[in-house]
Structure formats: structure tokens, C-alpha cells
Amino acid sequence: MKALFKLSTSVALVACISCGGSSTPTRPASGSLAVTISGLPAGTNASVTVTGPNNFNQVVTATQTLTDLTPGNYTVTANNVMQMPYSYGGNVSGSPATISTSAGANATVTYAAITGAIQLTVIGTPTGTNPSVTVTGPGGFNQVVTGSQVLGTLVPGTYTINVTQVRASGSIVDQVYTGTGGSAAVAAGATATGAVTYSLVAGTGKLWVALFGGPLSSGRIVGYDSSQLASSGAPTPSVTIATGQPYEAVVFDRAHDAWTIDSSNTLARFTPSQLASSASPTPEVTISGPSLSNPLGLAFDSSNNAWVANYGASTLVEFTAAQLASSGAPTANVEISAAGGLFDSLATLAFDRTGNLWVASQTNNNLLMFAPALLSRSGSPTPSVILSSASLNSPVGLAFDSANNLWVSNYSGNTVVMFTAAQRTDTGSPDAAVILTGGIFSHPSCIAFDNGGNLWVVNVGSAELLKFTPAQIATSGSPTATTTITGLGTIYPELGWCSFSPAPAALPLFH
């Protein structure tokens, strides 16, 4: 066996020697491609793809010469590159490149910005709140912004900056802030500027009370800040607006405009800017005409139409938002009169969560509910629900709490009572679920709830503003007000209608 092994080895060696030549394979002929890249910010990698024969595929991120390339045609493709705040597109020259053994080829990629940006600055939002800004633009762009930031890689074009109001929460009443929007023109490779400055909507963050005393020219609406309502006392209102009309009521619409009504058959609108400081401004809009007859109650529905209770004519009338846009003497869009004398001397009115309109009929001592279908056209429809209760005695003030209970102030009965939602589903004579009484009430008129669920009552007889906590009004009794604001009016104070601006978010106003 050993001899055979040696012989085989020798034969193999002879055969190899007889082959002649070199054992190293000959390299095929090759070429090169120089790729030159420019236009990107320093330190930014390009994204260039080179493809060619034999499935060649290589990504080039900077100027580079590719060597040892098999002869043939090579394609150079520039991919977009994002380097905030812009994206860049490349323009290629020299592709396809033909590689040969005799000469190299060249390709050039020149990058340039293809998008722009917006530097959006947002200031003025109150502590604890985020701004609500939406930016829209070309190609369906839509982005919500909650603070100052750069919006990058934007397609060139005009962008719109939309601002939504924000509420700064308060234990008694919120403050509302709004900002100015605008537009920004975006160009490739440039950063446009956009600014949103939030500021307080004047008139918000207050409890407003309408007062009248003495001469007819002494009508006014006054605003108390949260800080003034925090403890008992006789603070001077932070803002006093002299209206020059008697029997004023004050109600706010969705735009935070204050609307007053008076016995001279006029509705008047004061803008937030007119409520910024004490003055005697001329109303921006005045509505008069035959559809008003000693109006006493006012409420806005979900479409911002105004419904008015005419104390004199015992009618309910509706003015559309369009009719309220400018001064005039329009005929009411809808007028509802009493069916069979069911209501008389209408006082206040309020909408519940489902759009039903509740009305206090002072002389008849009942509460009337009109479903939305009954409010669509003029006529004398029978109310959907009629409550005639021994708990009602000259009802004038209406207010819903966050649980959809309806609270009523009895001007002559010197009580404040509550009817649950279950008690209001059908016509009947239910006893109030809660009755607040006692010597503290003296012709209570306006009632309103604050953010904490506290009930505020305007006491006309004593010209006071009283606050009762949720615990105090949970059951019937004779509670003592936890806060008493005095000095509302020392000369013949009248009905004193009131409104928080804005109303607590949990309440059904505007539903």
C-alpha cells in the first residue's frame, strides 16, 4: 500500500508540470465611473443608486469613483434626501453611463431643496393649557399644532393657520383665550414665519348681572371676576357697562357677545371688546320691531338663533342668526302664541340637552316644554309637557345643572326648587324633588350654576348675590349662603338676570 501511494503522487506531479503557464487566473478588462455629488448641506449623506451589468447595485453617499466595473451601461438614480427642515431632490446628468476598457465615464448629481418650512411661534396661552392650532395647505396637508415648532418638508404653496379658542379652567368660571391666525407662503429651500398670539376674550371669566334702578337711564350690566366671588363682601364690579335702558337682561351667545333685552322692546349686542372695561358703548347691533313686546327672557339654541319670551304679549319668538347679524326691525322667523291661555306673563326660558325649550309662565305658575318639532314653525301648539305644581309660585328663573335637573326660582314664593328629568317627562303636577326655602330668599330671580356645581341666586329684595354649595342643595331645607355679595343695586333693584361667561362646559347651554 505504501508503494502505490508514492507512485500516484509522482504521476500527479508530472502531469501538473507538463501543463505549463501560470496558476493565477487572468483578470477581465474593467472600467470606472466617477460620480460627483453636490448641493447637500455639509454632513448630509446623499442617496444615489448605481445599477449595471451582472446585477451590479451600489449606493453612493458622497462623491466617489467606482472602479473595476464590467464594461456596459450603468444607470445613476438620485433618491430624495430629507434633512430637516427641507427635503432635497437630485438632478442627474451623464446617465446612463457607458463603461469601456479604454476610457472611464462620469456622472453628476446636483441636489437642490424641493420643499420649504414654516417656523410657527405660539405665545400667550394661559398656564396649564395647550394651544389649538391647525395648519392646512396643498395636497391635503392638515396638522394640529400644540406649541411653537418648525413644520418642515412642506410642499411649496400657501398654508392657512387656523386658531381655535381654548379655555383656562377656573373653580368658579373659565376664561376663554383666542388667537389670530393667518397664512404663510412656503417656497422651496426657505422657511416662512407664522405667529399665533393668544389673548383673553374680554368679558369671559366673569359672572354678569343685569341691573336697573332709579331713573330709566340707569340700566347697566356688571361683571364680577372669580376672585371677587371667592368670598363674601361688597366688591365694586370689575366692569360696568351702562346701557341706558330699564329691565335689562344679559345672555351670551357662542361668540361670547353679550345680548341685553329691555322693556323698550330692544335686543342689543355688545362685542367682547366692548366688555373689556367700564364704559357706555353703543351696541354693535340693535334689534327692534313689532315682534318684541316687553321681552324678558332670552336663550340661544344650538344654531345660535335667539329665542325671546315676550312678557307683554305672552309669545315666544325666534330670530335667526342671520337676522341678528345687523341692526334692524325684522319680523320674527317663528312666533308661538298661547294655546287656550296656557301661558301668560312669560319670564325666562332655557334649553335642555336634547333641544327642548322650557319656559316659565309666571302668572299661571307653570312650566312649559316645547319639543324641537314644535319650534320649527309659527302657531299655537300645545306644549309637549306642562308642569303645574304647588311648588311653583311666580316662577321666573330657570337653570339646568350638570345632571339635567331643572331648577326654578319662585319670585313671589321666595323659594328655589328642583325638578328631576324623570319628573319632567310627562304633563302633571309633581312636587319639586328639592325645595330651598327660609328667610334668606327675598324675591329670588336669576339662578345660575358655576364650574363647581355651586348655585348662585340673585336676591332682588335685598340686592344680593348668594352662593350655595352642591351639598347644601342636595336635599330640601333652609341653607345659609356660603358666600354673599352685596351692593348690587341700592335703588329699586329689578329682576337682575345673570349669566356666567362662559357657561360651564358640563351644562346644556347651546345644545
State the main characteristics.
511 residues, mainly beta, five-stranded mixed β-sheet, 2 helices, 42 strands, disordered N terminus
For the largest beta sheet, what order do the strands appear in spatially? 4-1-9-7-6
The structure class reads: mainly beta
- What's the overall average pLDDT, rounded? 90
Shape: elongated
* Distance between the amino and carboxyl termini: 108 Å
- Beta fraction: 35-45%
The number of distinct β-strands equals: 42
Task: Give unreliable regions as ranges.
Answer: 1-22
User: In DSSP terms, counting alpha (H) and pi (I) runs of 4 or more, how many helices?
Assistant: 2
Radius of gyration: 39 Å
- Main sheet characteristics: 5 strands, mixed
The helix fraction, in percent, is: under 10%
Task: Write a structural description.
The chain has 511 residues and is mainly β. It contains 2 helices and 42 strands. The strands form 10 sheets. A 5-stranded mixed sheet has the order 4-1-9-7-6, with no helix packed on it.
Task: Summarize the SSE layout with pairings.
Blueprint: H1 2-19, E1 31-38, E2 48-52, E3 56-60, E4 64-69, E5 72-78, E6 81-83, E7 86-93, E8 97-99, E9 105-113, E10 116-123, E11 132-137, E12 141-145, E13 149-154, E14 157-164, E15 166-168, E16 175-179, E17 182-186, E18 191-200, E19 206-211, E20 220-225, H2 226-229, E21 239-242, E22 249-252, E23 258-262, E24 266-270, E25 285-287, E26 295-300, E27 306-310, E28 315-319, E29 334-337, E30 346-351, E31 357-361, E32 366-370, E33 385-387, E34 395-400, E35 406-410, E36 415-419, E37 434-436, E38 444-449, E39 455-459, E40 464-468, E41 483-486, E42 498-501
Parallel strand pairs: 1-9, 10-18
Antiparallel strand pairs: 1-4, 2-3, 2-5, 5-8, 6-7, 7-9, 10-13, 11-12, 11-14, 14-17, 15-16, 16-18, 19-20, 19-42, 20-21, 22-23, 23-24, 24-25, 26-27, 27-28, 28-29, 30-31, 31-32, 32-33, 34-35, 35-36, 36-37, 38-39, 39-40, 40-41
